[in-house]
């Protein structure tokens, strides 16, 4: 019989403490599980959820398992703040000024566990946290230590803190070619000495290896062999990082395009060589190189896919701005399809196109646009019929040119009308004509771009 989520968390905590030989009361087990459950089931979360956490769980490895339960417990930007129970735990150690966070200047000198976290994260009292990529990771480790300190041995807590610190993603190599984990090896040796934890050289290496495995697990989606599955998980991040998308069929065209643009910019700047980590032969070279190859392919496909998605959305955005202003995306495209309901959608009014010579109907991008990503994210369709129409209508050489004009439009150096005039009529006119059917309040203005008046 399947148990509920809170009961599952209680069982995981209980088995992990048993593995570590830590006695714990039933009341404490329940309190720990409820804290994790409350923090991780905030409505805005779609990727950083308990389902993601449970993929880490290995009841034979209590260090990784306990670290997993806490590693995403704080996600300030997504959760739009802190649960009262979480803030109560971290408030004595951080100071907030407006939207900025700082490590408190008044941390007691004898607070060994918080000092341990600061050393692992290479932070100091008074340091501004908002400028550090590790804000969520640091605060998550802080919650963990505040809850488990006094229960779990310091050496084990250190290993768990290192696992959480390791999930700070996409870190480049030092000027002399060292990875973050080789730098961390030296830091861990010094921390062990300073805190009297007496980790041997072998234990330092094994501790770092555990952290590397943990970090790679956190972003294993990048090593997905199926681009559609990779994009499905990636798409869950959009409403997490873009508040405006959390209300399906209400968000505006511009809001949606800007969310796509932020993700496209991220992928365009992401170095595939910084996605996964390797340390002292772990993962083995062959496995590691395969992971990097998949990451490189997924990043490339995601970037191309997002550009086509953006281009289709930008044409609608320019049509809207040129004929009356920004509007809900659903006004132009129609509501999201629902099972058992016949819903008027823009794509029903786009012409059928004969496949052009340059269109590879078996390509990954074509399949993603036609068939779609996996899973239902609730705020967007899995497939992209408008973008597919653009993809089938525009020669690849022209895509880059259109996208360059789109960036001029975003920057305000090209008006909506002037951007639309840069498009070939066989691309613009069918979309404008279909839009005039969808948005009868702007029909006459839209028909001007359809070449009908």
Sequence-ordered SSE layout with sheet pairings:
Layout: H1 5-20, H2 26-40, H3 50-54, H4 62-70, H5 76-79, H6 84-90, E1 94-97, E2 100-103, H7 112-121, H8 135-148, H9 154-166, H10 180-194, H11 201-218, H12 227-235, H13 237-241, H14 253-269, H15 285-322, H16 329-333, H17 364-370, H18 385-393, H19 396-411, H20 416-421, H21 425-438, H22 443-449
Helix pairs in contact: 1-2, 1-4, 4-9, 7-8, 7-9, 8-9, 9-11, 10-11, 14-15, 15-18, 15-19, 21-22
Secondary-structure element series? HHHHHHEEHHHHHHHHHHHHHHHH
Strand order of the largest sheet: 1-2
Q: Measured on Cα atoms, how large is the radius of gyration? A: 25 Å
Instruction: Quote the average pLDDT.
Output: 93
Number of domains: 2
Q: Which residue ranges are poorly predicted, with pLDDT under 50 across at least 5 consecutive positions?
A: none
Q: How far from one another are the termini?
A: 67 Å
Largest sheet data: 2 strands, antiparallel
Count of DSSP strands: 2
Instruction: Count the DSSP helices.
Output: 22
Shape verdict: elongated
Helix content: 55-70%
- Fraction of residues in β-strands: under 5%
Output the structural class. Answer: mainly alpha
List the keywords.
single chain; 453 residues; mainly alpha; 2 domains; 22 helices; 2 strands; 2% strand
